[in-house]
Amino acid sequence: MRCLDSGSSKGPMTIDETLSRRLACVSFVCACLVVSIHVVCDTEPETMGWWLTHMFLPGGLTRAMVPLFFVISGFLLAGKMGQTGWWRRENLKRIRTLLIPYVSWNLIYWCFLLALASVTALFGQKFGDQTWADVSLAEVYRVLGINIFMCPGLPLLWYVRCLIVYVVLSPILLPLKKRNGWPLIVGLWVLACYVPDMIPVDGEGWKVGFYRSNLFWGFVYFAVGVYLRWNPIRIVYRKCVGFVAALLAITMQVYCLQVTTCSDLCRMISTPIIMLALWCLVPPLSLRKEWGGVSFAIYILHPFVITVILALARVVGLKDALQHSAVAYFLQVPIIVCAIVGVVALARRFCPRITAFLLGGR
């Protein structure tokens, strides 16, 4: 059984059909699970609904989804690294696939929030603290997230911004091409543990810490993906390994929910275990090529849908009922995903060029 390796007779730089399908399926599942992180839910503590929702809310099992995205991104880039002119070519490619969507969706989300605040104000509701009077060059600078240690206008785009930085820095990962290159990953891991706290950045404490530390930790997972492409690891009895990893991850998550403070070490250990479980258990279904773009669209667009749902709930007076129900929480996730899939399908049919532009050619 294969784990992030091509298994092809053409060598480790070739991705066979099974691995390609598995990458697409895992990316889609990860995107859907990222949605579950951001759906607002505040159930009564220690109830069944509380336990179930906190398996998926921030700090739950879903915390491994974005790190797995980084692993997959590093894995895919490694297939190009070392070729003649690869660095220039891959960075130019990222202008279309990452930079244009990053700039576009930050500005779109900013305008979306301003418009939504104006609409909800007509119903006597205040949504957000921004108004059109706040528009300025300084605000545009903030929205675009030019400072890589601060939150961009559409917060989730920190992941896209990190990928842009990682591709630029990727030549330093070339030593990973050798099987004994793993000490570089260990060195990056140590840097991720200690360096972020040494960087002075003004701003809200937890937000600065989040974006600063994730910039470093994301690079560690990105490097792991590069290493796995060049040094394939095989897993025997994939399903058994997946179920054992899933059981271990759930057990660790239950422990973290029971104790007052769960150690960072426990979370660091459980994150790769969760990724292993997901990789082993998600079947390599045959998805159409367009589904790669749908996964990206789900990641980008779900904050828009969640924001609209919250605004509507506030206008009709159902905000509290929506946010305190575990049933509503688990219903919202598939509804949001299906809504985005439908919108993307319609957009591709009636305005394919604009859709391709906004989704980076996906």
Short description:
With 362 residues, the protein is an all-alpha fold.
Task: Describe the structure using short key phrases.
2 strands; mainly alpha; 66% helix; 14 helices; globular; disordered N terminus; 362 residues; two-stranded antiparallel sheet
The tally of beta strands, per DSSP, is 2
Q: Radius of gyration in whole Å, from Cα?
A: 21 Å
Order of helices and strands: EHHHHHHHHEHHHHHH
* Number of helical stretches of at least 4 residues: 14
The share of residues in helices is: 55-70%
> Are there runs of 5+ residues with pLDDT below 50, and where?
1-11
Mind describing the biggest β-sheet? 2 strands, antiparallel
N- to C-terminal separation?
Answer: 29 Å
Major sheet strand order: 1-2
Strand-residue proportion = under 5%
Shape: globular
Q: Which structural class should the secondary elements be placed in? A: mainly alpha
Overall pLDDT: 82
Please explain how this structure is put together.
The chain is an all-alpha fold and 362 residues long. Helices cover 66% and strands 1% of the residues. The protein has 14 helices and 2 strands; from the N terminus they run E-H-H-H-H-H-H-H-H-E-H-H-H-H-H-H. It has a two-stranded antiparallel sheet with strand order 1-2. Helix 11 packs across helix 13. The longest helix has 36 residues. The two termini are 29 Å apart. The relative contact order is 0.17.
